[in-house]
Amino acid sequence: MGNMTHVLNYNNTEIRAAGERLNMTDMWKAAGADPSRKPAEWLRSADAVRFIEFLAETMGIEVGNSQLQLVKVSKGGRGIGGSTAAHWQIGLAYAKYLSPEFHMWCNTVVRERMEGRGVAVPEVGELARRTDGIVRTTIHKVTGIERAVEGIGTVMRLMSDAVTDQDSRIGQIERALLDTADIVKTLVVANDPRVAALSRVSQKELLEKAKVPSKGRSSINRRFAYHLPRYAISNGVLPDRCPHSGTLLYPRDLADRFMKEKGSGWVRDHMAKVFGQGVLQFPDRRSGPPQPEGVGEGLST
User: Fold this and answer.
1) Are residues 11 and 111 in the same domain?
2) Residue 30's domain spans which residues?
3) Which residues of the chain have pLDDT under 50?
4) pLDDT tens profile 187-240
5) 181 burial class (0-12, 13-18, 19+ CB within 10 angstroms)?
6) What angle separates helix 46-58 from helix 218-234, to the nearest 10 degrees?
7) Do the beta carbons of residue 54 and residue 64 sit within 8 Å?
8) d(C-alpha 27, C-alpha 95), whole Å
């Protein structure tokens, strides 16, 4: 989107976006300006450092310089406070740290603006029915429902705002519903380690599920290893790393989307290339060259 400066608005607070960067200080103010959640505090955390290093790796930036290239801190002058700006994907990760409600808004409005794409506007009645179904599923599946109520309440408030304010986009609610489902899933995983083990999948498991033979798999392995982490990070997901093998693990729903959008087509191309080569047939030379018909017949020893 170049170096153009855009201004977003959340709770009557402006959030500046210049080029690929979001102003994290503006985001902090818009989310309530909690002194314990300033950008500098979050950037020092282990989660932030890990996220920024992974993002730098996917963008081909030297990890040691990732903070310098992806985060910009401006010192203030007389009567003007300083500010911190960062790559918009870092901004989305910071929004999740600030509050669930703000994170939902950023995942729709900010992501749409930074990626330069539109938001679909589904019919209000259908959207209401989908909301009701998700809420009912949430209530039945999550035991710690008190923590999920905040996310569900956000969905309801967003729906009310979208219906009464003609300038609001109902697509924002659709994204909020998906994020609410993510909150529910996180609660379930946190409460049961067995679920955590089953909810993640490795690249190797994806290829085995697609029945890609282990022999001759190196080229498609390299292709998946390059694109799958980048696909995850572009969707705001930081892969887990297995503590025993160091293998990257991805949420199954994200892995399924990746296979549907990209991976399955690559697998078909790979399989066609491998099995389409055929097998060359060579003559058995141990019996000598073939003899014309009739030669040798009727000869006695």
Assistant:
1) yes
2) 5-115
3) 1, 118-128, 142-143, 145, 164, 166-168, 189-190, 193, 195-196, 278-280, 292-301
4) 554 455 454 456 789 999 999 999 999 888 889 999 999 999 988 888 878 888
5) middle
6) 130
7) no
8) 7
